[in-house]
Amino acid sequence: MNHLRHFLLAPVIGAFVTVAVCAMPRYTVTVNSTPDDSTKVATTPDDSTKVVATSNDSIATAVPEKVHLINPASIIDEVVWVVGDEPILKSDIETMRLQAEAEGVRWDGNPDCVIPEQLAVQKLFLHQAAIDSIEVTEAEINQEIEDQINYWIQLADGSREKLEEYRKQSISQMRQQMHDDFRNRGLIQEMKKELVKNITVTPAEVRAFFKDLPEDSIPLVPTMVEVQIITREPKVSIDEINRVKNTLREYTERVNSGETSFATLARLYSEDGSARQGGELGYTPKAALDPVFANVAFNLTDPNKISKIVETEFGFHIIQLIDKRGERINVRHILMKPKVTQEELDKASADLDSIASIIRSGKSTFDEAALYVSDDKDTKSNHGLMANSTDMTRTSKFKMQDLPTEVARAVEGLEVGEISKPFEMINSKGKRVCAIILLKSRVESHRATITEDFQTMKEVVLDHRRGEFLDDWVAQKIKNTYVKINDQYKDCKFQYQGWIK
Questions:
Q1: Which residue in 51, 213, 283, 406 has the most C-beta neighbors within 10 A?
Q2: Nearest one of 498, 470, 496 to 484, comparing CA atoms
Q3: Percentage of residues of the chain with pLDDT beyond 90
Q4: Helix or strand or coil: residue 19?
């Protein structure tokens, strides 16, 4: 549990005051308290600028003023690299270092050189994404954030309260903190996909790649499993649903009366990752939204009016139109999720226990039960078989580490064809549900063979080709991009040449 606590706290440990300056030479920031300790002064070494910060350490305004020379020991942040027009701050490097330490990452080389180079490579992809107008929607960003939070909740024994205790943040604060990083991650991923989209390999090329490799270089295929699942969502009480709806009606009245704005209420109370943006989703196509949500949102015509209450798989929403552009719409929304009691969870678990007993007795099959009683819409029509989807492939086979934590824990103790006991988990919609699983198949770890593992071997070759292409792209991109590095990094042995102009 101590390791779990360290891991969950990692992104918080590295919190620093950051200043967005985008040019060299060396910019540094110092903080000096005024006599009443309510205002802080940040200075730059060119003796020309003073930045005043309020007591919460946020930079409030900047005015020209003569300042004194800096004591190096008082530096709290500085720009150490510039790639294109993107700065890399000393605090960015330290944050990445602390996160890696918490997660047990080992660096291949000097971390003081490897980390800033990795950040610089990310800036290259972000720079190209901006040039090529690559986009990720707020809906996509928010889903990634929710997936991450749900994963953390699973690590924290399925308890949102424990997660908030470990990280010393509310769920809403976590969403806000992660937004920009997840947006950049999405842009980088989309940019890489765009660059390598036309790379293919033939079966002959796969065979040739592995033909002369020694046995210990043949990829080791990890243990792979196929899992069928049945879930039951606990019944939420009418009183709880009414509480949520009444709260959303109250928000609507407060906006309509002019007491406050929709965006303010979204920032304060929405349980969606878009809360940080005042509930704004950005310009999103209809297909990227929940169908029920999309139907209501696309029928809105007046930005001054708020929608009726909308129920989706995620919870209950109210929506406000911002703008429409062709086939895309930009709206704000507030999401509230009804809370389930332990009594309701226990009842759902008991239902699943009875269903498992019926299947074990031979009166029904798992396939039939999944189709008729499972609440998991993603799997029920496929006999409960879980799907492992990535950007490039979709399969029913999972590595153990790719399964949801609770599912993997249940699989560990099962023989093929055996059904688990009921357990609780957080589903893809962020809801707490109960589940049982059946282990459909297990293939133990082994060296890949062309006859049995062609797809795995093909992916190895494709990944190799894509990696080579992206390495060449980065090397060329460095040559054509403005880069400025502090002198302290000029003796580093970098993976890519050309950083030092």
A1: 51
A2: 498
A3: 48
A4: coil
Contact 203, 454 (CB under 8 A): yes
Cα separation, 376 vs 370, in Å, equals 8
Tell whether the model's pLDDT for residue 488 goes beyond 60: yes
Does 153 or 40 have the greater pLDDT score? 153
Cα diameter, the chain: 85
Write out pLDDT tens, residues 291-321.
Answer: 999 999 999 999 999 999 999 988 999 999 9
Q: Give residue-wise pLDDT tens across range 248-257.
A: 999 999 999 9
Euclidean distance between the first and the last CA atom of the chain, given in angstroms as a whole number = 47
In the 8-state DSSP scheme, what is residue 309?
Answer: P
Q: What is the DSSP string of 77-125?
A: EEEEEEETTEEEEHHHHHHHHHHHHHTT---SS-HHHHHHHHHHHHHHH
| Secondary structure, 3-state, 401-418 | HHCCHHHHHHHHCCCCCC
What's the mean pLDDT in 141-149?
A: 85
E strand residue ranges, 193-285: 220-221, 224-232, 284-285
The predicted-structure confidence for 366-378, as pLDDT tens digits, reads as follows: 999 999 999 998 8
Cα separation, 336 vs 340, in Å, equals 13
Q: Which two tokens stand for residue 499?
A: 């950083």
The Cα–Cα gap between 147 and 338 comes to 19
